[in-house]
């Protein structure tokens, strides 16, 4: 087993004063909505073999203007045949400006027919992409940076529109119900019972995990005791539920995760937790017009880098939002799907070097034995909802002081004042375009760290009334674009067999990138370009040097800018291109300018060896010289040019491919 640096919670430092400010999430390009059109049945869903145009409704959530905004799409999904237009010009955006793009990305869906694969309308068949953004004066992040479209569906009917809203003013959980995912009933062989429910790097059976061979391995399961595992830590905040009166955004109540201890210690949160609340009934979403959107007001403080000696921006406990599709009878259909916010996004990533165990749900389609690269013997990371490198909520708004616009924690803001109680609220929003026409349940989930012998963070640290383990308050949950009666979802049976699967000849390297391919002859499906020089990793001989790539011009930078096999490879700062007597002045010798060069030297000789009659002209900043000495009848003269300043370049190569030597100008 390889030895790697690990950090244990038991050695972590509980420094509670003098900490750095939260990481500044300075906004980005919010992907508010995705709009699909196609060359097949035109139903707004991407179907087999269709050429699809994907437009974006975007918002500039940074504090300043963005100019020359361009979105870039990549994808390696097997359901993708080809990306035809991978770049989307958005234009200039003022702060806060929202716009639907005039044009869109264009891609072709592979020949993956839902009916032909034996799949029903509620089975998983989707296509995913990654999104990046370039702009001036700086390139913002895209929120979310992952897009996914469900394939081969058709939707009809439904009545509405309406909105789903829950503010808990009934002094009950309202539309929500508890999901105690860490409850096991009789306390038995919990290691087996919770097989799969850990982060990959906490798997007690995997030699490369942090927990393997540690004292925590034998108890690497949620819950410290049977009573704690069965306890419920989601409930309500407000009058009648909270010793200090609780809090609410638009009313007097809110949903609360944590433990309200009352003064003077106030609030704390449980350890070793995997617990959620979800909507008891599915919410029917509309499919015509604007896409449905989820928004909520919340404030949160879970243990993270602020109270534990781990890097800034990392956390031990995490909160996320998920959705699950329901079938025509309202029953769950498929996995829970993590939702990524476009407004006030997730603010932390889990810290992945604790010996202590960390947990993650198994009903999201991923377990601790799933890895990004199963063939890698050193593998320790994999897909999940809450584990590193996934992002989650831990520090949103402020939970202990009177409301203030600047008390945003790890969020972008602005901070909002609620009607009742302390704390600063933040609004987070989620695009539900993927689920148009379907019915979904919503889930709020918290996953926590286990510290042996302790049931709460207060029990472990004893630092309260410090606010850094206060909990999660959620209020004013709103879904717009909902329906009063659900639409009918079916498999799309349109015959698309006559549609071309991909434009012929546009993807010679079969990497599903048909246009603007940065490696047109070598597969580079994710279009990785480490030095941003336009040549991808798969074909760039120096992907850490933006001046060196296939076909690069030689620049005056004291290094070779060509790749192996190219003309000029092995030479430094040679003048590229064709030089000669091309002017109407028959005595003028000229050459192409070399980027970065400000002085050139020209040599002349009576023999190509540049030994006989060799002489040089005065250095010149121009790209030509005039040789005033006439050529004698029957004589031949030879000319060479090189850059001279700031870097003295090569004279080029001879016919044998060796560097030329000019004896009068070494």
Structural account:
The longest helix is centred in the middle third of the chain and has 5 residues, at 226-230. Strands 12, 14, 15, 20, 26, 27, 28 and 30 form an eight-stranded antiparallel sheet that branches. It contains three helices and 36 strands. It folds into three domains: 18-154 and 493-517, Immunoglobulin-like (Sandwich); 158-368 and 397-486, no CATH class; 552-666, Immunoglobulins (Immunoglobulin-like, Sandwich), CATH 2.60.40.10. The chain is mostly beta strands and 666 residues long.
Overall shape: it is elongated
Number of domains: 3
Q: Which residues form runs of ≥5 with pLDDT under 50? A: 1-21
- Portion of residues within helices: under 10%
Q: Beta-strand percentage?
A: 25-35%
Q: How many helical elements?
A: 3
Provide the residue-averaged pLDDT.
Answer: 91
Q: What's the gyration radius in Å? A: 32 Å
Major beta sheet, specifics?
8 strands, antiparallel
Intertermini distance? 57 Å
Going by helix content, strand content and strand pairing, the class is mainly beta
Number of strands: 36
